[in-house]
Amino acid sequence: MPRLSRRNLILGSAAIVGVTALMTKPRDHSGPRDPYFLDMQAALMRAGIATPTLVIDRARLNANVDTLIGHLPAGMGYRIVAKSLPSLDLINHIRARAGTDRLMTFNQPMLSALSEASPEASQLLGKPLPIQAARNYFAQLPAGRAEAAGNVQWLVDTPERLAQYSALAAELGRELKVNLELDVGLHRGGFTPGSELKAALEALRGDPGLSFAGFMGYEPHIPALPTALGWRDRALKGAWNTYSDALGLAAEVHGAEAIAGLTRNAAGSPTYRYYEDTGIANEVSAGSCLVKPTHFDTDLLEPHLPASFIATPVIKSLPVTRLPGLEFAEGATRVWDPNSSKTVFIYGGHWLADPVDPPGLEYNSTFGRSSNQEMLNGGPELEIAADEFVFFRPHQSEAVFLQFGDIAVYEHGEIIDRWPVFPASA
Ligand SMILES: Cc1ncc(COP(=O)(O)O)c(C=O)c1O
Q1: Which of 53, 74, 196, 358 is least buried, going by the fewest C-beta atoms within 10 A?
Q2: Candidates 104, 181, 290: which one to mutate for ligand 1, based on the most atoms within 8 Å of Cβ?
Q3: Residue-wise pLDDT tens digits, 99-133
Q4: Which pLDDT score is estimated for 36?
Q5: pTM of the model
Q6: Which residues contact 212 (CB under 8 A, 6 or more apart)?
Q7: In the chain, where are the structural domains located?
């Protein structure tokens, strides 16, 4: 049996600590720039752009639209989620490419703007609007756009809201289309099959001011559930059973014929690929997957390409990383973490986004975030000069797209168009 000496124990422990430390020591993530982003940078410079800008790659956007439409089974409609693609030109481009005139709208200013610009489009509210917002919509609707309101389906989630919309219809002297929100497992509100839903369906049948337009059941929680023990499959089956029971109740109250023409809306980007026939839903809504922010980097959405980027000029590029009051630690920090070797300060910052090019750029949690000149650090291979561009991928599109003014549309190595975004009002 070996003799354990105190000295050997100390040396052994030190070796373990050393090896563990080496294993956790950050690797250098820097490297050469991606030619894809170098081409985009050259296009931005040729277009005279020198402020933080949201860029959409139109060829990738088109490929994503084709991927989506190509996946839909026969008879399945596609509804564009307007809030996730918040630009009239962007929506119109997708409408033309996808061959759809169905939109899902989430706030009154956007509903009003779309009614004015595209009165022929069908708009289904993606969340129930307060009755005063609906009243404001009608008050603001230009006389020449009255027909647009006939293409709106108002989402209703409770008997109380149904009564409010009934009163508004009477007040306006016009019929309002109502779509009932179903809780298919997300638990963000809505009806579940039962006496309350039945009463709502009966109220709709007997109300001369309201017509029953369909159901909306959104289930983005499902792909987030573990697959273990069939958990995810059970949730999907449960969602579809709930939807199917609601359709059964609707047939009971309104008759099988009446329900044949209903809008049966379901899904979102994370789940549209679950729908392989029209047994439950006859249309899916999706928006984000067409531009693919990082929150949509999921297995199911693997065939979709990132198509939206924030590009911002470098203001200062420094060969070192120096932190105020911690100048003495500069060398040791670089030895420990090569990714803190160099520094750029960018134009703007603090967005819901991750840097993607040049490779290996990281935020500095000690220096902190900045909306004015954000610090990013990189490794020894980082090569970027002042006035060149850093590229980010947004985490989400709906709020981030509204922060940069007109979208720069990129295709075949050039900025070919600018698409204004909706105002950042909710
Ligand atoms: C009701 C509803 N449907 C669909 C979506 C899907 O939108 P996206 O495809 O942009 O995730 C959303 C997103 O919030 C939603 O609230």
Answers
A1: 74
A2: 104
A3: 999 999 999 999 999 999 999 999 999 999 999 99
A4: 98
A5: 0.94
A6: 178, 180, 201, 204, 205, 250, 254, 258, 262
A7: 27-53+306-419, 58-291
